[in-house]
Amino acid sequence: MNKSESTIWNECVEIIQKNVNPQSFKTWFEPIKPVKYEDNILTIQVPNKFFYEWIEENYIDLLRLAVQKVMGEKGSLEYQILMDNHRKIGGVNEQKPNDNDEITNPFVIPGIKKIKVESQLNNKYTFENFIEGDCNKLARSAGLEISMKPGITSFNPLFIFGDTGLGKTHLSHAIGNEIITKFPNKQVLYVTTEQFTNQVINAIKSNAINDFMTFYQMIDVLIIDDIQFLANRPKTQEIFFNIFNQLHQNRKQIILTSDRPPKDLQDVEKRLISRFKWGLSADLNSPEYDTRLNILKTKMIQERVNLSEELVEYICHHVKNNVRELEGVLISLVARASLNKTIINLDLIREVVEQFVSTDSKEISVENIKKLVAEHFELPIEKLHGTTRKRQIVIARQLSMYLAKSFTTSSLKSIGSNFGGKDHSTVIYSIKAVQDLMDTDTLFKETVQQLEKKVQLSLTS
User: Fold this and answer.
1) Could you tell me if 160 and 255 are in contact, meaning their C-beta atoms sit under 8 angstroms apart?
2) Domains of the chain with CATH codes
3) Measured between alpha carbons, how far is 216 from 195 in angstroms, rounded to an integer?
């Protein structure tokens, strides 16, 4: 009794299944369907051209072994791809496709060679030049963890969000570059949401959506920038949803960036937003003063610029929204000094800073706050730096730290250093002490409110 194509293929599958891991079997062999068996030739149908090339590059020897064991030395296998384009294999003699058979891979050079995807990463963005601070510590730490174990940590997907210019793109590229360094065989791909959407449109127009999706399912680490631009693109969302599911199921790493957290994404399907929340959402905030100092000094080294400590501090006190503004100020300073053949002084810095930063209101500093508090308690400002435990001085010192944290962007470490070199834990304790006292002492709460009004007035006066 002649065997059917299904029986023969199932016997081949039993051999194949013993020689590949479950994940690879599910991805590459479960979708294959036996079509017919005739003249000792088994015809199998594969989903698309890319699928065919991957199978032939990676599993040709295993397929030949299975076919010969089940069908004998003269047994051969024929692929059926799209419009019945095909290629036969079997035994030692391998038949080549005709010139008219359109089975070329749309994503790589045709032929048997290793597929390597161009990552599209900027190799200038690394962890070494991504300055860590309180504003980005969680996201950076998660990125480092991912770079050591992509797809294996619980940070999948990693959803990085924050305003423009805070380093989302830098960090996502740094993760990708670190993974490539540690795992050269990993396929890493960075695309913006706009690029991804345009690719979807082109794939639909050229009737190649299956090839497109199969290509993305081959990626080990997918980085998509500005995912909020998926809004109001239902077809793109549907395709990305399927790609996301396949990658996540196969423990491939997904990294997304956005200008807002998942819960605030507008006009994006709930099922996608739900998946964005599966891993870790890490925000990037405006860099605190100490971080701005470190960033600017690093950029100065890169640009080979020398500025006095006074000038560096002036820039960091006035440019505080994002990293991009800091970079812009420094580049503009270098350009102007070079073109005008002049030195970089305070007047030039003030002129450039005004172009980047709104100067409608003044910035309050820790020193300003200490002065206001000392005047209110009728104390010499030096007393706030000491270690005396006199109640009035202790309260004035703690209140100064509380206001400094509320009205400046200085870090806890920086605030402490302004009070005689206190550490950050002392600042935390002082802030908590003020909050507790406000809850129990009405008169003290009124004092705090009066000082807060004085600080606010100093910002606009």
Assistant:
1) yes
2) 5-89 (3.30.300.180), 137-284 (3.40.50.300), 289-356 (1.10.8.60), 366-460 (1.10.1750.10)
3) 13
In contact, 334 and 303? CB cutoff 8 Å: yes
Query: In terms of C-beta density within 10 A (0-12 exposed, 13-18 middle, 19 or more buried), how is residue 388 classed?
Result: exposed
Count Cα atoms within 13 angstroms, Cβ side, for 291: 24
Amino acid at 444: F
Which own/partner contact pairs does 170-174 have at CB distance under 8 Å and 24+ positions apart? 170/125, 170/130, 170/323, 171/125, 171/130, 171/136, 171/139, 171/140, 171/143, 171/284, 172/143, 172/223, 172/225, 172/255, 172/257, 173/121, 173/122, 173/125, 173/223, 174/125, 174/126, 174/127, 174/130, 174/143
User: The tokens of 8 are what?
Assistant: 């023969």
Q: What are the angstrom distances between the C-alpha of 17 and each of 11, 75, 170?
A: 10, 20, 42
What is the C-alpha separation between 377 and 241, in angstroms, rounded?
Answer: 61
Q: Rounded to whole angstroms, how far apart are CA atoms 71 and 41? A: 9
pLDDT digits (tens, 9 = 90+) for 366-416: 888 998 999 988 888 888 888 888 888 999 999 999 998 888 767 788 888
The pair of structure tokens assigned to 401 is 């730290």
Place of tokens 């209140």: 399
pTM across the whole model: 0.56
- For residue 333, the surrounding DSSP H or E stretch is helix 323-340
Give the tokens for residue 323: 């990293």
* Farthest-apart Cα atoms in the chain, separation: 108
The token duo for 267 is: 């006009």
Instruction: Kindly report, residue by residue over 61-95, the tens digit of the pLDDT.
Output: 788 888 888 888 888 888 776 543 444 444 333 33
